């Protein structure tokens, strides 16, 4: 016998269940399966009722919407599934776990985006609210068109800047400063015409050589 086998044989085996314990486990398992079967049957019957209700309600063309009472998510999913199978539109509104419910619409009377947005916010929705929104959009459109056609207003200053600063520089100085447009050549910079060298090349070279001779004569020490 190898080492592993000896170790396995030396280990204590788990205690075997008594007949009473086995019966208790079996009973619990049967109860769970029974509850699961009952739940499946309950959901099946609910789906059949929803399908029947949708068929009878939307059979009349006058009926274009059907509202269900608030229900848990699993039942809402069954309503959505049944509505889709019947070629209808379904939407859920409200707060999950509180008052969330389903509305089913015929495709010929699908809800507009305004209705969906209002119901998701929890706001009331009816024909009067719908017409108010339509009228508001018409007015907004007219105002937008009128704004595009309106000419921009010409800006007119309330005062003359020359009058504003006249008490600092005098009325005459203000008028003259406003009229003066040419550059003042003596203020702040050297005019470009003063920077031009009007000498010829020969004259320039001669001046440079003269400066060098003068510098050399000053630097030579006297004996």
Give the topology, please.
Blueprint: H1 3-10, H2 19-57, E1 65-67, H3 73-85, E2 89-93, E3 101-105, H4 113-121, H5 127-149, H6 161-164, H7 166-169, H8 171-179, H9 201-219
Helix pairs in contact: 2-3
Describe this protein's structure.
57% of the residues lie in helices and 6% in strands. The protein has 9 helices and 3 strands. It has helices spanning 3-10, 19-57, 73-85, 113-121, 127-149, 161-164, 166-169, 171-179, 201-219, and strands spanning 65-67, 89-93, 101-105. Strands 1-3-2 form a 3-stranded antiparallel beta sheet, with helices on both faces. Strand 2 (89-93) and strand 3 (101-105) form a beta hairpin. It starts with a helix and ends with a helix.
């Amino acid at each position: 016998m190898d080492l592993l086998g000896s170790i396995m044989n030396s280990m204590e085996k788990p205690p075997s269940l008594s007949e009473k314990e086995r019966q208790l486990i079996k009973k619990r398992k049967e109860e769970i399966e029974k509850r699961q079967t009952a739940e499946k049957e309950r959901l099946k019957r609910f789906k059949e009722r929803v399908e029947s209700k949708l068929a009878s309600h939307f059979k009349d063309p006058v009926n274009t919407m059907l509202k269900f009472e608030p229900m848990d998510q699993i039942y809402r999913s069954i309503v959505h599934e049944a509505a889709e199978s019947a070629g209808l539109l379904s939407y859920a509104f409200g707060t999950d776990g509180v008052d969330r419910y389903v509305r089913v619409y015929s495709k010929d009377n699908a809800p507009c985006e305004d209705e969906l947005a209002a119901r998701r916010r929890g706001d009331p929705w009816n024909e009067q609210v719908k017409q108010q929104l339509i009228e508001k959009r018409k007015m907004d459109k007219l105002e937008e068109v009128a704004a595009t056609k309106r000419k921009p207003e010409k800006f007119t200053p309330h005062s003359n800047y020359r009058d504003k600063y006249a008490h600092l520089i005098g009325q005459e100085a203000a008028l003259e400063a406003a009229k003066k447009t040419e550059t003042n050549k003596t203020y702040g910079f050297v005019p470009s015409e003063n920077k031009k060298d009007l000498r010829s090349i020969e004259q320039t070279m001669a001046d440079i050589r003269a400066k060098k001779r003068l510098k050399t004569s000053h630097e030579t020490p006297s004996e």
